[in-house]
């Protein structure tokens, strides 16, 4: 379904009943990324969103509209429309950066937080500037060479090396999902929502009182390192490193990932 919030149209999907679970995909993903996990989560009311510039959600021409503070405000408005006061939030990669921002800015609305292969941003302005420059170059490449050429390169970056050995139908589904987006949507998502654009939340991790589950893939050294550093600063967190998995654990080992999330979501319930 389509929902208009703060002047933009979002594609959102809702299925299941029970504990509310807001799902936020990564860069080049969509709400569809979570569909294979639905059978594992019958007791959750799943709310999956196509983020700005992705899937069937609007791709504003002004990159500033994609900024993380605006997308976090959009999430709050979507929850208001749904009449959901407090929600469990699961974010993967870029979606995890947004999930963390939402938890920092709206702590009372987040019951539990799951961050898969994500980060609180970059700590220094020097790192952020270098990343903005790299993401601007990538955005221009998407606009000049097109989404297909971008996806051909993107699926080969070292971060996704572990996806090369996935079954062909799984790889084909990831590729189809990546090819669905527009050049404007992906380019402006990088410009507005990229890792170098958002503020660093490293110094605010200590504020988060809600339970936080950090999940990373054993073969994704960079984001396992980041997760371990976040774990040291978060007051109420647990860290699970999934053996043999890479960056996209929910794609590579959906059953294990779904079980980890279910156990975290129902922990402490009698
Ligand atoms: C390559 C790096 O960062 C990019 C990779 C992961 C993030 C993501 O959402 C990718 C999801 C996917 O394609 O499966 C993405 C982001 O957080 O915006 C980054 O651009 C890196 O080494 O940091």
UniProtKB/TrEMBL annotation:
GO biological processes: menaquinone biosynthetic process
Keyword set includes rRNA-binding: no
Pathway assigned in UniProt: Quinol/quinone metabolism; menaquinone biosynthesis; Quinol/quinone metabolism; 1,4-dihydroxy-2-naphthoate biosynthesis; 1,4-dihydroxy-2-naphthoate from chorismate: step 3/7
GO MF, one example: 2-succinyl-6-hydroxy-2,4-cyclohexadiene-1-carboxylate synthase activity
Reaction it catalyzes: 5-enolpyruvoyl-6-hydroxy-2-succinyl-cyclohex-3-ene-1-carboxylate = (1R,6R)-6-hydroxy-2-succinyl-cyclohexa-2,4-diene-1-carboxylate + pyruvate
Gene3D superfamilies: alpha/beta hydrolase
Keywords: Lyase, Menaquinone biosynthesis
Domain AB hydrolase-1: 20-253
Family per similarity comment: Belongs to the AB hydrolase superfamily. MenH family.
Record function comment: Catalyzes a proton abstraction reaction that results in 2,5-elimination of pyruvate from 2-succinyl-5-enolpyruvyl-6-hydroxy-3-cyclohexene-1-carboxylate (SEPHCHC) and the formation of 2-succinyl-6-hydroxy-2,4-cyclohexadiene-1-carboxylate (SHCHC).
Quaternary structure (record): Monomer.
Cross-referenced NCBIfam families: menH_SHCHC (TIGR03695)
Protein name from the UniProt record: Putative 2-succinyl-6-hydroxy-2,4-cyclohexadiene-1-carboxylate synthase
Organism: Geobacillus thermopakistaniensis (strain MAS1)
Primary gene name: menH
